[in-house]
Write a structure and sequence with these properties.
- The complex is a heterodimer of chains A (about 110) and B (about 120).
- With about 110 residues, chain A is mainly β.
- Chain A has no helices and 11 strands.
- Chain A is globular, with a radius of gyration of 13 Å.
- The N and C termini of chain A lie far apart (about 35 Å).
- In chain A, about 35% of the residues are buried.
- The mean pLDDT of chain A is about 95.
- Chain B is mainly β and about 120 residues long.
- The N and C termini of chain B lie far apart (about 35 Å).
- In chain B, a hairpin with a 3-residue loop joins β4 and β5.
- The chains are: A mainly beta (about 110), B mainly beta (about 120).
Chain lengths: ~110, ~120
């Protein structure tokens, strides 16, 4: 059973466009929601994270939007660049474990 | 500061064999987690060790086992390999238990191919 559902599985965006990746969860005990970025041949690396006491967190071109009532959160990449092409994983933590989504492969076309 | 080091990076085994993978965490990190990454399943949690004790275990058969040494280095072992065990095995370290902060530092993984 997948604790965190992530969509889409793959995404192709033009350079300068907005990339949006969505995740949903059921367990209300989750209280920490990080996003990881993975380039080919590398391990995932923490990109940005949010706690449920805020509805949005922005770091540069990356923004997490969090909807606690809907139990959904999303990653927005503004002005997407070819260098953003990678696999993105959302995750959720109930303080004793970390559950990952299945990943979204983002391709940004020049 | 050196990152998480995993060895070997690549290996090929045949069905029925066993394999041991090694992970050296970032200096000072006491928690080591292991994940299996496959194209369709994403990152599946195997287990987490903290101060030489297994603190969490994922939903994998008993063929998958691990341990952590006093210097925080960790090994995982897969016995009686099956074709479906072919995957990238990722190790991640953190200062405290992974779920407390969500900030894991991953190695580049060990890619296992089972023929």
């Amino acid at each position: 059973q997948q604790q965190v559902k992530q969509s889409p599985q793959s995404l192709i965006v033009q350079k300068g466009g907005i990339s949006i990746i969505n995740c949903a969860y059921e367990n209300t005990a989750f209280d920490y929601f990080p996003w990881y970025q993975q380039f080919p041949g590398k391990g995932p690396a923490l990109l940005i994270a949010i706690r449920p006491d805020v509805s949005e967190k922005k770091e540069g071109r990356f923004t997490i939007s969090f909807n606690k009532s809907a139990k959904q959160f999303s990653l927005h990449i503004m002005d997407s660049q070819p260098g953003d092409s990678a696999t993105y994983f959302c995750a959720a933590s109930p303080a004793n474990n970390l559950f990952f989504g299945t990943g979204t492969r983002l391709t940004v076309i020049p | 500061k050196a990152g998480v080091t995993q060895t070997p990076r690549y290996l090929i085994k045949t069905r029925g064999q066993q394999v041991t993978l090694s992970c050296s965490p970032i200096s000072g990190h006491r928690s080591v987690s292991w994940y299996q990454q496959t194209p369709g399943q994403g990152l599946q949690f195997l287990f987490e060790y903290f101060s030489e004790t297994q603190r969490n275990k994922g939903n994998f058969p008993g063929r998958f086992s691990g341990r952590q040494f006093s210097n925080s280095r960790s090994e995982m072992n897969v016995s009686t390999l099956e074709l479906g065990d072919s995957a990238l095995y990722l190790c991640a370290s953190s200062l405290s238990l992974a779920g407390h902060t969500g900030e894991l530092f991953f190695g580049e993984g060990s890619r296992l191919t089972v023929l």
